[in-house]
Design a protein that fits this description.
By secondary structure, the protein is α/β, with parallel strands linked by helices. It has twelve helices and 13 strands.
Amino acid sequence: MIWLNQAATTFPKPRCVLDAHTAALSAPPEGQFRSNAARNGDAFDRCRENLGKLLGISAVDHIYFTSGATDAANALISGLPLTGKRVLATQTEHNSVLRPLMNLTDRVGGVDIVPCDALGRVDPAAAARMLSEPAAALFVNHCSNVTGMVQDIPTLAEIAHRCGTLLVLDASQSAGCLPVDADAWGVDALIFTGHKALFGPQGTGGYYVRPGVPLRPFRYGGTGRNSRRLTYEYGDYEYEVGTQDAPGIAALNAGIEYVLERGVNAIHDNERGMMKALFEGLAAIPGVMLYGDYARCRGPLISFNIRELTPSDVAYILSGSYGITVRAGLHCSPLIHDAMGTSENGTVRVSVSDMNTKADIEALIAAVREISASVEAAT
């Protein structure tokens, strides 16, 4: 099988990730503040330190682990000071952000959408115009999981702060494969997931909140420390409650260490090479419609369609006849498809990681060429 659905979950994982997970499951359980069995420091703190290096975060004690980006987004939307206030979100956002914003109506006063173009680019000038009216937060998807467009976060953060607005960055699709520098960019809160370009297991992820930004937890429970305290003073909260996924965090840390050792720029260059081949190869096939632009969309994914076939048909044929796994549909980002003109059926998405090879790309292009030729012959 050729796995070209890396934007959903990376596969295969680096060997070090599998070894770390197995070692953690084979050793005495390491639970934060609940055991004296830990050796060489705590897996959670080691992972926080490495995330700080990777994402440009100095206050690593303000990084908190969750089950993934969806849990992280809900924690932020539930806990940030948004009650009764207007917030903005871009048209490129994932449903892990859109759905809590649209449904937690007791926490958010109203949501306005900052438009994007057909490539998924958000114009900072449009955001500035919409921020002429007060807004508590601006939610921005760093890298679109449909077109691969990467937003200008420093400019958007500057505009937001000028208007007294928090900048909340969703780095789920970029952390590990694109440079992220939260402190330098002025990010107030950041969402990340572990199972994509960080090469961690499913069920890992978290969020960061800049010191000074108030956040009320949306769940309470045991933490393994200060057990006599039953109530909290404002600003003295604990955010990681219950038994955490220590084996998952150990594996996630191994994935982050792989990225740090390999280098984000080296990973990005490798993936850009594959994306160049994909763009050029697919663009040369009659009947293929591409959504995106290699020169402007720098993320490791591409969306396309084949005339006369639905995206689900193409994905089914690729899987059943060629052993190639891709993704079809709206990719949990429904609003961007309105800008792309693909809202009815969505697109076929091909996404790569550092684990893919040139041969994988060549196989996909050859398969799409055969499928498209068959369609042309039949019509």
